[in-house]
Amino acid sequence: MGRWEPGARERLVVAAVELFTEQGYDDTTVAQIAERAGVTKSTFFRHFPDKRELLVAGQEALSTLLAEGIAVAPTDASAIDAVASGLERASAMMGPANRDLGPRIRAAVAASGELQERDALKSVGMAAAMSEALLQRGVAKPVAHLAAEMGVLAFKQGYAHWSEADRGDDDTLAPYALAALADLRAAASALG
Amino acid sequence: MGRWEPGARERLVVAAVELFTEQGYDDTTVAQIAERAGVTKSTFFRHFPDKRELLVAGQEALSTLLAEGIAVAPTDASAIDAVASGLERASAMMGPANRDLGPRIRAAVAASGELQERDALKSVGMAAAMSEALLQRGVAKPVAHLAAEMGVLAFKQGYAHWSEADRGDDDTLAPYALAALADLRAAASALG
Predict the structure, then answer these.
(1) Is 0.85 exceeded by the ipTM?
(2) Chain A 22-41, CB below 8 Å of chain B: which residues?
(3) DSSP letters of chain B?
(4) What would the pLDDT profile of B104-158 be if each residue is shown by its tens digit?
(5) Which of the four CATH numbers 1.20.1560.10, 2.160.20.10, 1.10.357.10, 3.30.460.10 does domain A58-191 have?
(6) Number of inter-chain CB pairs under 8 A, A vs B
(7) Which of A2, A109, A127, B37 would give a disulfide with B11, using CB separation of 3.0 to 4.6 Å?
(8) Under CATH, to which class is A8-53 assigned?
């Protein structure tokens, strides 16, 4: 395998999720993941510090995109519209491979307490990134906190619906996330 | 030390949080915690499986009380009023010792990635318990999810304000949590 062969990172993620689902997270080694992906262990470690970080690959990128989308929304956009802009930008990084992995990642997370903790921290990180971006737009604190939680819920629910839906391959995540956000907006109206 | 000396559990929690803050979570051993609390290591292990679980002691009790408070709210109570009922019931288990520990626990969590993950999972568990209790009252799904997140935010913000406030010892957590919930309700109204 070449040192920088394109696609190694993606192959490692797919191989790891397959193995986690087949034999459990705890019983899967880095060596097994590398072998299944057809790369060396050193290649694994050039991409990920350990097997746990692999599963949340892209988390920082996701939080950054959510925050950027909020920052670039028009000045007069409402907090919810800014969150929608964040969801649209973050959705753009999720391709067909992410869609296929969704159910398998959820199965692996459901089977491992350690992954559940990592996954929970990921949600907290996404909420913090959106909340901070909203505060920088001058949104009041409780509104920013609640809108950020709505953004996290919308992203997760949208992703779940998108990866479970039996639809065309050209389906993108964005409309699913925005539909979930619209449901939550109606819920906020009912609760307010 | 007697095997079942009253107060051992509380002394272990206080000793652990002191040590986590003084020398860091990773460098603190179960033996040190037991010594500081004046109990044996076996006494530690009768109360907690490991040092990490110690810090989230009471988490299951908290989630149970939140859900119970929601379940016993009057049939015609709104989702937000049911969440308020859960916050009141859960607040009743938080005494002066919890109030004093608040800032020290936050310092220990801020200093440890492992504790951050555990703390994030705790929030997810609280939200799931409240969400489930609301669904059982017949609350619609998106409303239940959002109201549960508002309950978690209100509990955490209320607890932070309560433990930072320079007030009388007879101050209880409940009014702080309910004030935070009222702020979030106004925020929901603004977002809806």
Answers:
(1) no
(2) none
(3) --TT-TTHHHHHHHHHHHHHHHH-STT--HHHHHHHHT--HHHHHHH-SSHHHHHTTTHHHHHHHHHHHHHTS-TT--HHHHHHHHHHHHHTT--HHHHHHHHHHHHHHHT-HHHHHHHHHHHHHHHHHHHHHHHHTT--HHHHHHHHHHHHHHHHHHHHHHHH----TT--SHHHHHHHHHHHHHHHHHH-
(4) 888 888 888 878 887 888 888 899 999 999 999 999 999 999 999 999 999 999 9
(5) 1.10.357.10
(6) 103
(7) B37
(8) mainly alpha
